Automatic annotation (TrEMBL):
Coiled-coil segments on the chain, per record: 69-103
Keyword Signal carried by entry: yes
Signal peptide stretch: 1-21
Assigned keywords, A-Z: Coiled coil, Periplasm, Signal
Primary location class: periplasm
Subcellular location: Periplasm
Family: Belongs to the CpxP/Spy family.
Name of this protein: Protein refolding chaperone Spy/CpxP family
Pfam families on file: LTXXQ (PF07813)
Length: 163
């Protein structure tokens, strides 16, 4: 990747991180994280609440067999600790960026290091979620895969139209 592209990417990540830090600086509650656009997606394999809800929804809507449900549950369980670890690191990074901003911004090198770390963590999270989705896809029938695709499209369009 060219240097200018890396710098642009870092700048965009930093800007979004600072914007997110600013909007949630005074709302550190669980409710605020649930209202975040990515909150529901990031809970896909985490916790009894988020993971169980996701699994129940998949079972109901896709009419998963008992074997399929067990396989999906195993995929989610296998990835649970890694996703929780990534989530914690992202929150720590967000907090560090917020503190840096509140303390006058520091020097550019501190921001650059945190922005680069943030980019790496987000990339790792995207890769991990993609692996989870791919493993789940292997469990589904062709019909169920098509239904899942339609459900994602409906969710995507419905989510953005809420205004």
């Amino acid at each position: 990747m060219k240097i200018i592209t890396k710098i642009s990417l870092i700048g965009c990540l930093l800007a979004s991180s600072i914007a997110l830090a600013g909007t949630q600086a005074d709302t550190g509650s669980k409710k605020a994280s649930q209202e975040c656009h990515h909150g529901a997606h990031s809970r896909m394999g985490q916790g009894a609440d988020g993971g169980e809800r996701f699994l129940n929804r998949m079972t109901d809507r896709l009419k998963l067999t008992t074997e399929q449900r067990s396989s999906v549950e195993a995929v989610l369980q296998k990835s649970k600790s890694q996703m929780a670890n990534l989530k914690e690191k992202i929150q720590t990074n967000r907090k560090a960026l917020r503190e840096l901003k509140q303390n006058g911004g520091g020097d550019g090198s501190q921001v650059q290091v945190l922005a680069q770390e943030r980019g790496n963590l987000v990339a790792a999270s995207i890769i991990q979620r993609s692996k989870i989705r791919n493993e789940i896809q292997l469990v589904l029938t062709d019909t169920q895969r098509e239904q899942m695709k339609q459900m994602r499209e409906e969710h995507k369009h419905g989510h953005h139209n809420k205004g």
